[in-house]
């Protein structure tokens, strides 16, 4: 059953947020959508944390834009794995994003101009702190579950560490306790594509009336390659030419080239370049074990939640080995944890797709959650 027509709301916060960098930021607002009904005890709330290019719009569609369907609509809704007949689900757009929450394109009240390059670098821990304030706004002392995929899974994990008494269940999908050097390298190449675009103007391209589309396009193409598996790309495109024979130029000879350029063009038309820089840096910086001598078990020791993790065999960006690393650290602390590894061909993007085994596992877990 479809979640149906939904609406977002902007919730403002006047008190500055103390960031991990040492800076303070505020006032600010977060854009939020909710699905289902919060029960009288306020014990059935589920927070969904989003990945790099997603947002608060988790499920349903807008009355004036019926084709704009939530990014996890196959997961959240009436009768779906996260059943909004039982749970009150909150989707929040993170600080620094370009989908409605205060971000680099927002007006800096001190200057009357967009924040641009002056917007502070934020971390996963900063987002979680802001989300905790959002929970306070709703009067939610403890979430039944906090869940997310990819970067969203990092936030869920951080919730269990930062606010152990406020999380009943932590659901981490296709995620990692920290990025590998290879992943950081991919992110840096993508950022360099943006930073070296002549239209970037040091991050103040808003004042010039331009968008660093070339850099954004390349950044998205790089990122998109890492979200797919080699087998998936081979099945979708192979070495298929767009025409009957090679053109012997530097255009789009191959179908895979055409696909990547389409994805890059589309992304550059709606995503903010400064936001891309911020979010990829937040990905790079996340490493809860860093403050514990690299010992993930020590980092997870404060957690009190029960955990559910799932990974996908062909996800080489956030491989199953990284999820197993989290499981091992949880077991070392004798935390209750369930782990599911799905043999799926779709790479990292599998967490967004309709896989019956994956959805059945999530559904079974959420059916166990008491509210």
UniProtKB/TrEMBL annotation:
It catalyses: L-homoserine + succinyl-CoA = O-succinyl-L-homoserine + CoA. Keywords: Acyltransferase, Amino-acid biosynthesis, Cytoplasm, Methionine biosynthesis, Transferase. Belongs to the AB hydrolase superfamily. MetX family. The active site is at residues 150, 315, 348. This is Homoserine O-succinyltransferase. Transfers a succinyl group from succinyl-CoA to L-homoserine, forming succinyl-L-homoserine. Pathway: Amino-acid biosynthesis; L-methionine biosynthesis via de novo pathway; O-succinyl-L-homoserine from L-homoserine: step 1/1. InterPro entries: AB_hydrolase_1, AB_hydrolase_fold, HAT_MetX-like. It is an enzyme of class 2 (transferase).
